[in-house]
Structure formats: structure tokens, C-alpha cells
Specification:
Elements: H1 24-35, E1 39-45, E2 50-56, E3 64-71, H2 76-96, E4 102-109, H3 117-130, E5 135-138, H4 145-151, H5 171-190, E6 199-203, H6 207-218, E7 222-226, H7 230-240, E8 243-244, E9 257-260, H8 269-274, E10 279-280, H9 292-299, E11 303-304, H10 307-310, H11 313-322, H12 327-335, H13 337-351, H14 355-367
Parallel strand pairs: 3-4, 3-5, 6-7, 6-9, 7-8, 9-10, 10-11
Antiparallel strand pairs: 1-2, 2-4
Bound molecules: nicotinamide-adenine-dinucleotide (NAD).
Length: 368
């Protein structure tokens, strides 16, 4: 039984019993069990060099959906750990956003040399087809609509093909969801209907950070940003006139909102003590280094927008495309993040329970 999104281990070794010598396979199986899987399928094809894993977390709400990433993993264990962690997260994202899907993820272990890319992805398409519609595949890191087109020659359980009008980069849609959550928080916490003059400190000027800055700037927000990548940061300075700060100063900026858009586990005892913002809403996955920190923020009067709810813009889009909807329908559904998260802010205040706990509880109920 998983107690919380943030309690999930980053490493399956944590689930090894101290007095028993488990093999890596044992630990991974225990990790999968702990996360509440589901079925896990593997495919090895010598001819094309395909080594792939599909981890189907939950089918309660409908066929499981999630991207297929192709990454040069150092070991199979790393690939397995990644696919388990990500598939599980997809279930929670889908459930909290009321999508008619369970969560899943696929990884293709990138071969050192790809002899025939088309043959490789066709074989992956056959693998998806063998799963009989339990898993719907989509783009992720290392794949694009062009690969989805190849997969579509062998299966219909695929979305994000070029014909669907999908883009390889979901970041603008993710940023839209985060912006809507910020608007809802500003309304709830500060009683303001617009972001005009609201000060947002954004950690990370990468894909999502950039588009979020663009959205917020257009709405008149005042922005402070940091990034270890000076080129990415300078682009936001040039285009949106943002102020910048040092990496470790971002938490103590006297802003209304702190938007973590770089790394996971950035919300811990030290950073929360330092935070001046009364709202935390960003795209990063697993922002809380432990779920307790959601409660700590709640006690300190900091309104936290649950990450897995508000950063699901890309997944919502993929689900809409599979249902033959278009970008307009995706945008409508991503805009709904405002209402979903606002309800959670209200319930948190009414029941005096941290927002992350409420969101996780709702998702778990829907997955049961
Ligand atoms: P990205 O790699 O494009 O951007 C991350 C940025 O953070 C980079 O510019 C990097 O230099 C910067 N960074 C790294 N360490 C930093 C630090 N200590 N302080 C400040 N900046 C630092 O990634 P992204 O696609 O923009 O995603 C950002 C976060 O949102 C990630 O946690 C990702 O998992 C999550 N997320 C992204 C999407 C999406 O659509 N891209 C969807 C859901 C969740």
C-alpha cells in the first residue's frame, strides 16, 4: 500500500529487508508491489535490437496511457526503476484529472547502434498490439510523432502521430496547467482575480520555466528567475525582462508565488523555513522531499498546489488526442485544472488537511 506520492522510494534498494539478501530482481518486484502494480511486460528482439519494458500500473479507470521514452540506460535495473516510477505517477495524474485512463509507461533501452529505426519501432508497435489495448503509447523523451507514425503501422493503440497534430514538446501545455493553478491560488489566497503585479519566483528557465514565464509575463506578473544554465536564463531576461537571482536565493525572494520548475525534492525543512512566498505552484515532479512537508507548509499557511495535479497538461493532451479530440479540447481540459485545484484548496482549508494529502486521497479512491 502506498501511503503517499512523496513517500515513494527513489531507489528500490530502500525496500530490501535488512536481514535478507535480496537480488535486484527481488527488490524491483517488491518496489512494483509497493507501488501497486499491475502488470509489467518486457520484449527482447534480437533482430532489431529492441529491448523494451511496458509497465501498466492500473486499469481501473480505463486503458492505461503513458509515453514511450527511448533512453540510453546504463543498466536494465535503471530502466526498470524508471518505468515503474513513471507509470505509477501517470495513474495518479490521470485519476486526479478525471481522465478515463489508468497510468502506464514504456521504455525502450536505446541500443548503442540503431541499425534500422523503422524496424525497431515497428517491432515495438507489435509489442503494444500484443497487449491488446491495455496500454496506449505516446511520445516522451527520445521519441517524437515520427516514431509514433511508425508504431501506428502495427497497432492502433497509439496516439501523438503526425496526423493527430501532436507536438513532441508538451512543455507549453504543462506551463498552461501550472499557470491556471497559480491563478486559482492567487484568487483563493490573495483574493485577486488577475496576475497583474503578482510576483512569481520561478526556479528553472528550461522548457516549462520558459513557457511559464511567457504566460505570466503576458498577464502582467512580475518575475524573478534562476537557473544554472545562464543561456536559458538570459533568454527569459531578454524576452520577458525578468529579474534574476542566485540559485540558493530563489527560496527567500519576497515573492507571492514560488514556482519550482527545475528539480524534484526541493521542498524540505530548510527551504520551507526560508520561503517567503505564500503560494507554491510549479511543474517539477515530486517537489516534496517527504509528504510531511506538505503538512508543514499547510501549518505555516503556505498554499501548496499538488505537483502531479497541476503538471498534467501533457498527459491530458495525449488522452484527448487518443479520444480523437483536438488541441481546443485539450486546452479546455487543461484550463479545468483551475477548478480542480481550487476545490482542493477549499477542502484543505475546510478540513484542515494539507492539499497534497487531499489530492492523493482523491486519486487513490479513484484508482481503487
Ligand atoms: P528542463 O530540463 O528543460 O528544465 C529544467 C531547468 O532547470 C534547466 O534549465 C536546468 O538548467 C535548470 N536547473 C537545474 N538545476 C537547477 C537548480 N538547482 N536551480 C535552478 N535551475 C536548475 O526540464 P523541463 O521540461 O522544463 O521540466 C522541468 C520540471 O518539470 C522537471 O522536474 C520535469 O520532470 C517536470 N515536468 C515537465 C513536464 C514537461 O512538459 N516538460 C511535464 C511534467 C513535469
Amino acid at each position: 500500500m502506498v501511503d503517499s506520492m512523496s513517500d515513494r522510494p527513489s531507489n528500490s534498494k530502500r525496500y530490501a529487508h535488512p536481514h535478507v539478501r535480496y537480488t535486484v530482481a527481488d527488490s524491483l518486484m517488491r518496489y512494483a508491489e509497493f507501488l501497486g502494480y499491475g502488470d509489467i511486460h518486457t520484449k527482447i528482439d534480437e533482430k532489431t535490437g529492441l529491448k523494451a519494458i511496458v509497465a501498466i500500473h492500473n486499469l481501473k479507470r480505463g486503458p492505461a496511457i503513458g509515453g514511450c521514452r527511448m533512453v540510453a540506460y546504463q543498466t536494465i535495473d535503471k530502466a526498470m526503476e524508471d518505468v515503474l516510477r513513471l507509470g505509477y505517477m501517470m495513474s495518479y495524474k490521470a485519476a486526479i484529472n478525471n481522465l478515463p485512463h489508468g497510468g502506464a509507461k514504456a521504455v525502450i533501452i536505446k541500443p548503442k547502434v540503431i541499425k534500422d529505426r523503422e524496424a525497431l519501432f515497428e517491432k515495438f508497435g507489435e509489442f503494444v498490439q500484443e497487449l491488446g489495448g491495455r496500454y496506449i503509447t505516446a511520445v516522451d523523451s527520445g521519441t517524437s510523432p515520427a516514431e509514433m507514425d511508425i508504431i501506428a503501422r502495427r497497432t492502433s493503440f497509439v496516439t501523438c502521430t503526425t496526423a493527430s497534430g501532436a507536438d513532441s514538446d508538451p512543455s507549453p501545455l504543462t506551463a498552461l496547467g501550472v499557470r491556471r493553478a497559480i491563478e486559482a491560488a492567487v484568487k483563493f489566497k490573495l483574493g485577486r482575480d488577475t496576475l497583474d503585479g503578482v510576483h512569481v519566483a520561478i526556479q528553472g528557465a528550461g522548457h516549462v520555466g520558459y513557457y511559464l514565464a511567457q504566460e505570466l509575463h503576458a498577464l502582467g506578473a512580475k518575475l524573478t528567475m534562476c537557473d544554472i544554465n545562464q543561456i536559458a536564463l538570459q533568454r527569459c531576461v531578454d524576452e520577458f525582462g525578468v529579474k534574476t537571482c542566485a540559485i540558493d536565493e530563489i527560496y527567500s525572494i519576497d515573492a507571492d508565488v514560488f514556482a519550482p520548475c527545475a528539480l524534484g525534492a526541493v521542498l524540505n525543512m530548510n527551504t520551507i523555513k526560508t520561503l517567503k512566498a505564500h503560494i507554491v505552484a510549479g511543474s517539477a515532479n515530486n517537489q516534496l522531499s517527504h509528504s510531511h512537508y506538505g503538512s508543514l507548509m499547510h501549518e505555516r499557511g503556505i498554499l501548496y498546489a499538488p505537483d502531479f495535479l497541476i503538471n498534467a497538461g501533457g498527459l491530458i493532451h495525449v488522452a484527448v488526442l487518443y479520444g480523437h479530440g483536438d488541441i481546443k479540447k485539450s486546452l479546455e481540459q487543461i484550463n479545468n485544472i483551475y477548478d480542480t485545484v481550487y476545490d482542493i484548496y477549499e477542502r484543505s482549508s475546510r478540513e484542515n488537511v494539507a492539499t497534497n494529502q487531499i489530492a492523493e486521497m482523491i486519486a487513490r479512491e479513484r484508482l481503487r
